[in-house]
Structure formats: C-alpha cells, structure tokens
Specification:
By secondary structure, this protein is an all-alpha fold. Helix content is about 65%, strand content about 0%. It is built from four helices and no strands. The chain starts with a helix and ends in a 10-residue tail after the last helix.
C-alpha cells in the first residue's frame, strides 16, 4: 500500500474498528500524522490542535485494525495508558507480521 492509498483508506474507514490493517497502511498513516503534526504545529498552535482532533479517531481505528491483523484484540490499545512499558509493548505489537488465518478475518 502506498502513502496516498493508506491515507485514503484510513479516512474512508474513519471509525471502522472491525477488519484488519496491514503494516504498510498503519505505518504510512503514522508518518502522515507525524508530518501533519509537525507542519501544523509550526504554523499555529490551534491549527495543530485541530489537526490532532481530526486524525484522532482514524488513528485509533487503524491501530485497532492493525492489532486485529496480528490476532490481538483492539482493547490492547488501552496499553497506551501505561507510560513507557505499555508504549513499548504496543510498538512491538505494531511491527509484528500478520497472522493468517485469524479470528478477525
């Protein structure tokens, strides 16, 4: 999946927490949100906050679908609430290869 396809897919599945997302879809969207945050943050504080709100739900949805791709529940996203250790665990989970077949399709 290309950079543009990933962004289009993530925004077309704005709040779709079911299904699966391949690594490329997830990491291209992470890159998009990172670059968007840098650019909007450099322009204006309120613009950056607005951008963050716009990409919040698509980011959570693609992360949940990425976890489904490795046969984990989307509830694993709650690990974000555990500083450092939870973040590291999620990072490791996000880089794992897909598991076929699995219970999420």
């Amino acid at each position: 999946m290309t950079f543009v396809e990933s962004i289009q897919t993530c925004f077309s599945k704005y709040v779709e927490f079911n299904g699966r997302a391949k690594r490329s879809e997830f990491w291209w969207f992470v890159l998009f949100t990172f670059l968007g945050s840098l650019v909007t943050g450099a322009l204006h504080e309120y613009l950056s906050a607005l951008f963050s709100l716009v990409v919040l739900l698509p980011s959570l949805a693609v992360a949940a679908r990425r976890l489904h791709d490795i046969d984990k529940s989307g509830w694993f996203l709650l690990l974000y609430l555990i500083p450092f250790i939870g973040w590291i665990v999620l990072l490791v989970l996000f880089v794992l290869d897909s598991k076929d077949p699995n219970r999420f399709g």
